[in-house]
Each structure stands twice: as C-alpha cells, then as structure tokens.
Amino acid sequence: MSSPSLPALFISHGAPLFAIEPGESGPALTRLGEHLKGLAGASLRGIVIMSPHWMARSPAVMTNPKPTTWHDFGGFPQALYQLDYPASGAPDLADEVTRLLRALGIEAQPDPKRPFDHGAWVPLMHLFPQADVPVVQVALPAGWGPAQVYAMGQALQPLRERGVLLVGTGSMTHNLSEFFGGERQPEPYVTEFSRWIEAAIERGDLAALLDYRRQAPHAQRAHPGDDHFLPLFFALGAGGFGAGEPPVQPGYITREVMYGILAMDSFTLPALQPAAA
User: Fold this and answer.
1) To the nearest whole percent, how much of the chain has pLDDT over 90?
2) pLDDT for 28 beyond 60
3) In this structure, is the dihedral angle defined by the CA atoms of residues 231, 232, 235 and 237, taken in order, positive or negative?
C-alpha cells in the first residue's frame, strides 16, 4: 500500500521565546501534528526541515543519527536552556535527500555532526511534542536567492509520496531591531506584508513572490535580511506551487502576530481536507 501524499509546510518560528511562550500558534501546530499523524499513520517516515539558523557555504544535509539540541542563542530566560528535543536523526533518509538534490545538479554534502538548531527544534516541539518522528535538517546555502531555494524544495518533492514531511521554517516577518518584548497591536506594515504574500500564493503568482523584495509592500522593513524568509521558497517548491492550474492553495494554520512585529503565519501546501485549522 502506497503512502498518502503529505503536504509541505511553512512554519514561522519567530523568536526562541516561542518555545515557552506558544501563544495561539503553538497549540495550532500541535493540532496540525496530530492531524498529520492521523493522515499518514505508520507510513510517516520522517521530517526534512530547512531552518535559517543553519546557513552553509554550500548545500549540506544532516546525517547525524543522534543530533543534540543546540541552544544557539543568548540572553533569554534560563528555562529555554533546559529544553531538549530528543528526536533521532535518519541517515538513510539523509542519503535519499542527498541523492535527490544531486540528481538535479545540487551538490549537497553530508554533515555527520550537525545538531538541531533552534529554528528546527523550537517549532518541532510544538508540531510533534513527543519527538517521535526522525528529523533531517538541510542547510540554507549562504548567498542563495529565492529561485535557488525554491529549486531545492522542488528537488525533494517526491519525498512527500514516500511518507516524508517537508518543512521550511523561518518567519513571515522578522525585523528584530523593532523587538521590545510584550504584546501590543500588530504594526500595520506586518499585516500588509503578510496578507500580500498570502494573496500572491492564493493566485499562484510565483513570479511576484520570487521578486518579493521589489513588489511586496514594506519588504525591506519586514525582512532587513532575507534569511528568515527564504525557507518559505523551500516550502513552495516542495509543495508543488507554481506548477499547473489551478494554483495549489495554502491551508493556513495561524496568522497570529506576536509582540506586534513577528508574523507567525504557518500553512500547508496544499490545504488539508478537512481543514487543519
């Protein structure tokens, strides 16, 4: 019996505090994880995830069978440093990822020592809190643009038919120079940028999304650097976005804004039926 086709995911992980301040988004991701386990059953083989907190000079794939939990941040509450995400690695899946990337000319190299950075383990703590699904991280190559990262996602798309969940995690908006802590009303630019992205996805406008830094409102303010936005293109490529008509439609899990400036938008591609949210 073949595995059901799993969606690709984009998950906003915001700031490290998301691990202990889940807001509405954390429980929404937990419900999604339960839904995905029900959808896939025993055929859920693993997760392949791209985080902006692993940027490498060239494409790389975690082959570590027992990754440790790396607390790659400073100045946060002590409770964050006590957290552990003990999911196993998946060397066989990592080899499969490497072969698929190389087949399309993306010369990925194995990394046998890579730990889980917080861009991976923080959202996964909410998505699969029991840490019972093996995880493989792929690096975000430094200097790559949206089209190149989209191609990485496309290369791995066949894994969705093989019981593998493909995840890009970053943040829908990520201007930490404006982070002052505490909840407040969302800044207008945050909402305007996020809803422009959503509308472009809904109409299948890949060209506009690839050119988001020129076309999206407030793009430079929403993302002074594009590292936390590029994993969205990994999810788009993995989710089959931009291929054929009608456009693949997203299924939004959350549109929460934290601390007034961090849009926590998360969605599946395609939307799940029944709706996950």
Assistant:
1) 90
2) yes
3) negative
Distance of alpha carbon 147 from alpha carbon 166, whole angstroms: 17
Contact between residue 53 and residue 115 where contact means Cβ atoms under 8 Å apart: no
Spatial CB neighbours of 110, under 8 Å, sequence gap ≥ 6: 60, 61, 63, 94, 95, 98
Domain map (residue ranges) of the chain = 8-269
Joined together, the tokens standing for residue 55 give 């940027």
- Give the chain's end-to-end CA distance (angstroms, integer): 28
Residue 275 scores a pLDDT above 60: no
How many angstroms separate the CA atoms of 134 and 50, rounded? Answer: 14
Nearest in space to 109 (alpha carbons), one of 87, 94, 90, 88: 94
Question: Torsion angle of alpha carbons 89, 86, 7, 20, nearest 10°?
Answer: -150
Residue 164 phi, psi (nearest 5) = -115, 135
* Cis status, amide bond into 250, omega within 30 of 0: no
- Yes or no: domain 8-269 corresponds to CATH 3.40.830.10: yes
Residues 6 or more apart in contact with residue 277 via CB below 8 angstroms: 28, 32, 251, 252, 253, 254
Buried b (16+ CB within 10 A) or exposed e, 220-256: ebbbeebbbbbbbbbbbbbbbbbeeeebbbbbbbbbb
Across all residues in the chain, what is the average pLDDT? 95
C-alpha separations of 139 from 16, 24, 128, 202, 237 in Å: 19, 28, 21, 28, 16
Token look-up 């305007």 returns: 192
**Beta-sheet pairing, 164-170 with 60-62:** unpaired
C-alpha 31 chain-centroid distance: 17
Question: What pLDDT, in 10s, does the model give residues 141-156?
Answer: 999 999 999 999 999 9
Cβ count within 10 A of residue 68: 14
